[in-house]
Amino acid sequence: MKAKSMRLALSTAILAIVLSAPGRAEDTAKADFAPQALQAKIAYCKTCHGVSGQGFHGSTPIPRLAGQQPQYLENQLRAFIERRRENKYMYNVAHVLSPAMQTALAKYFSSLNTKPVGGAPKELVSAGKKIYEEGFPDAQVPPCASCHGPEAKGDGEFPRLSGQLHDYVFNKLVNWSAERGQDPKNPDTSAIMQPIAHNLTKSQISAVAAYLNYLE
Amino acid sequence: MKAPMIKFVRSKIAVLALVASTIPSLAGGLETDRFRNCTWCHGESAQGYEPAPRLAGQRPRYIENQLLSFRAHTRDNPFSKQYMWGAAANVSPMMAHNLAIYFSTLSPKAADDGDKQQAATGRALYEDGNPDANTVACAVCHGPNAQGTRDIPRLGGLSYHYLKRKLEQWGKGYHAGAKPPMPQIASKLSPNQIEALASYLSFVK
């Protein structure tokens, strides 16, 4: 019962946020670049995100982009540009991209189907799966699966989490309020995740991250 | 002034390479003997000489990997071939591990030998890259203060000459088997960009 009412509250919150999001006028933007320019930009992204978009460990974990939801990728690129999401490097990278280029890059990376790199502690996987599928109703943590999908493939602006680098997931959830939703005048879907990330302990986050890390 | 010094260092390096490759019994010798062999070229406190990079404060996993890649001949630039292939020939994986940990614990000093005029340009490239030209920011992997992490080397304070030579060599196809993305990134840098980066990094504490 409790879980059900929480899910309802959550979907109401999501609806409210989605409805309040500004319209996306650039959706129909035409290609304003040569095919070679797209290829060069893809190679540039892969320098840091891995040759198959599988993610890479730089001085901090650089996320997997392969198979990511295109709408999520586009929204994040705009979030970096609009400073809703705080990341110095990605601001630099993203602010020179035309809307059409953003769309083309999102489409390309969403089409990749790369095996997860793995590396997370395997002993945490089963605990992580349980959290992912059931959440903690008493701690106001809904099942992750309710938004990110039973196989963690994501949907629209809700990101795919399967195969993501575990230390990336950990860093994001631990620092959620410092990195996401940074423009109070322009709230975005990241607000949904804020209380959930806050209510998870670090060891619970590690477990969920380990589960997702191996999920294809 | 500089040339005789280099000659002197080179002759010492040659001796080291010879010693290390012809006396396998050293492999079982005292740890201190090993450190001394390295410090002949890399300096008493491992701060490096012109041909031999500073090892002090370097990431241990990087040092270990490089020793193994000298042994496997995959790091194949001229100085590596000339000196380090011989020097590393009898270094066992365990010895490589121990040497790496030892040198990583020594405190590094910045070489400060770059061109000050170019440091600002180098810093901008290091920190921001050039998104219009699809050049990535070095800081993404090597860290905001060029301190490195895991097997990604510390670059801050290495000598201008070493950095310049190494960056140029990526573009000439040396060490091509190194893990991506370094060969791909560096082979696209212009000579001016290399000068600026090497200058900036030589001053980083």
Tell me the name of the CATH class of chain A: Mainly Alpha
What is the molecular shape of chain A?
Answer: globular
Number of domains of chain A: 1
Specify the biggest β-sheet of chain B. Answer: none
- Shape by Cα distribution of chain B: globular
Average the pLDDT over all residues of chain B and give the rounded result.
87
* Strand residue content of chain A: under 5%
3D architecture notes:
The complex is a heterodimer of chains A (216) and B (205). Chain A has 216 residues and is an all-alpha fold. Helices cover 53% and strands 2% of the residues of chain A. A two-stranded antiparallel ribbon of chain A has the order 1-2. In chain A, helix 6 packs across helix 11 (202-214) and helix 8 runs antiparallel to helix 11 (202-214). The relative contact order of chain A is 0.17. By secondary structure, chain B is an all-alpha fold. Chain B folds into two domains: 2-105, Cytochrome Bc1 Complex, Chain D, domain 2 (Orthogonal Bundle), CATH 1.10.760; 116-203, Cytochrome Bc1 Complex, Chain D, domain 2 (Orthogonal Bundle). Helices cover 55% and strands 0% of the residues of chain B. In chain B, helix 1 (2-22) runs antiparallel to helix 2 (31-42) and helix 1 runs parallel beside helix 4. Chain B is globular and about 50 Å long. The two termini of chain B are 27 Å apart. The interface between A and B is medium-sized, with 18 and 21 residues.
SSE layout and pairings?
The complex is a heterodimer of chains A (216) and B (205).
Chain A: H1 2-20, H2 35-49, E1 56-57, E2 61-62, H3 70-81, H4 88-94, H5 99-110, H6 125-134, H7 145-148, H8 166-174, H9 176-179, H10 190-199, H11 202-214
Antiparallel strand pairs in A: 1-2
Helix pairs in contact in A: 3-4, 3-5, 6-11, 8-11
Chain B: H1 2-22, H2 31-42, H3 60-71, H4 78-88, H5 93-105, H6 119-128, H7 139-142, H8 160-171, H9 182-186, H10 191-203
Helix pairs in contact in B: 1-2, 1-4, 3-4, 3-5, 6-10, 8-10
